[in-house]
Amino acid sequence: MSSQDIPEENLPAEQGHAHGAVDVADEQHPFADPGLPPHEHRIQDIDERAAKRSERTVALLFTVSMLATVAFIASYVAIPHDKSIFVFPIGHLNALNFALGLSLGVALFSIGAGAVHWARTLMSDEEIADERHPIEAAPEVKAKVLADFKQGAKESALGRRKLIRNTMFGALAMFPLSGVVLLRDLGPLPGTKLRTTLWAKGKLLVNMNTNEPLRPEDVAVGSLTFAKPEGLEEHDHEFQVEIAKAALMIIRIQPENIKDKRELEWSHDGIVAYSKICTHVGCPISLYEQQTHHALCPCHQSTFDLSDGARVIFGPAGHALPQLRIGVNDEGYLEALGDFDEPVGPSFWERG
Questions:
Q1: Positive or negative: CA dihedral 232, 235, 240, 241
Q2: Does the structure show a pLDDT above 60 at 314?
Q3: Which of 38, 243, 284, 328 has the smallest count of CB within 10 Å of its CB?
Q4: How distant, in Å, are the alpha carbons of 85, 222, 276 from that of 294?
Q5: Residues of the chain with pLDDT > 70: what percent?
Q6: In the prediction, which pLDDT does 152 show?
Q7: What would the DSSP string read from start to end of 93-130?
Q8: What is the distance between the alpha carbons of residues 210 and 213, in angstroms, rounded to a whole number?
Q9: Looking at the DSSP assignment, which residues form a beta bridge with residue 85?
Q10: Positive or negative CA dihedral for 172, 173, 174, 175?
Q11: Which residues does 120 contact at the CB level (< 8 Å), separation at least 6?
Q12: Of 38, 37, 57, 44, whose CA–CA distance to 1 is shortest?
């Protein structure tokens, strides 16, 4: 149905030109301003049945949003966090993440789509031109507001009743702490977990590739070997958490080429062990240049001199890589002589 099919008396009144608009330019108005174009009525403006259909559509979208919110809550409660599903053509996904993302997305989209459909089909869409006016209030309004404020301050007796004033300020200052307490739900506090690793005196250095303990003769000059602590297996529940702190780089350098005195003392026959975790944002370091003894982080190109205490010579890393003191046990295997003497990885605010 179009507006031509509706009797004239059923059509909404047309808006005239904006105030000050002129159809033809003259000396007073050098530029013609014919005003707004004629308003075109929507089918919902002239047909109540169409308006009802739009109303039901908006209500349906809002109902879908409510159902999606219920699905979000139910998914969070019912779906195990380690369950995976196959979604074509994406592949295998975590079921909980997929359900939460899908339900939340549908809930937000339905609210937005319902609001847009409501505005475009049922709310007024007529353009109205209005003359601009000064934003600031008139002087008499300003004076009245100021007088009302002073009168209210006087009647509150805030300056005279100090007990009320001080307790009110205390309540307002402490109330936001309730929101801070909710941050505790983000997870348990780390405690000293960031400062310690699985390395301890007597722990063997195990080759990450062969899963066998390392002997000094297994490490050639100029080679790079990755190691983990004895007893840490890939099937362990906390493997990823622990290896992210305990991963080692094993490099063999001619003892006369080691510049740092402590590095030489903590090594064994030129074999040095450094944390594999970059001190910038925690990426694993995997690139080694044997001629210069430089290790390069592939993420942001932080470069460390492994012959000089693993100090930073380029890039955004904030401090040198921690070194692990090593030795050889009675059976001829490389072993740790303790834990790192400082936290591994990026700096954190309470590192000290």
A1: negative
A2: yes
A3: 38
A4: 43, 11, 13
A5: 91
A6: 85
A7: EEHHHHHHHHHHHHHHHHHHHHHHHHHHHTS-------
A8: 9
A9: 93
A10: positive
A11: none
A12: 44
